[in-house]
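Researcher: Please predict.
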Amino acid sequence: MDNFRQFAVSLALKAGDIMRQNFRIGMDKEWKEDNSPLTVTDLAINDLVINEVRKNFKRHGVLAEEGSYFNNEEFVWVCDPVDGTYPFSHAYPLFTFSLALVKNGSPVLGLLHDPILSRLIIAESDKGAYLNDKLIKVSESTSLNRSLIALENNDTRFYKIRECLAGQGSLVTTFACISYSSLLVAIGEFKAAIWFGKTPWDGAAVQIIMEEAGGICTDISGNNQRYDRDINGLVASNKSIHPRIVEMIQKCL
């Protein structure tokens, strides 16, 4: 796995350089059919990932937001080139490069890179999770009171869940970037992150990072899921708070 780890870190640093060089006020952007923005940075990093995987791992596939080549390979690199394109393209620095290596649907390596604050989290199966080479752990809190919770996706479910969490004394916020939210959970600052989307590149790296940081990540119903296909959202938290949030979601929906 050492060569996979070295490859992932090298790729993340290259992607971070592209992000920093292109991050500015007044960024040009297009709008996709789902009303999400698309920038030249998304495309450049996506191409970088595909080209580097093809060059280094000929039997691996790539499943990425802006372009894939994937035909049921055993190993698949699952990537969001700019997770948080909304904030990235609107000049506020809450975004990451997200990359996971998935084996038969299960992440075995995950990486999140925040190039603005030079935060790089990486985790491998049974080897722990590290922020810039320092071992990290999720919060040990057992209470939702006075807890920071990140709730992503601005739809009708957002307001129902927000009301339920506020009733428990939680402070609920959103970054429009589930990987950034989850990064803060993994380092113990936030207590949970909740997301209702379906795209696997938004959750694959989060899954293994949370587990290796002592937490748990499931779909919104509390089930395990594969990350080489559409997913059913995610809930990332510690092992004490997680089941309570899943139960709350099911009651509120």
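Model: The chain has a mean pLDDT of 95.
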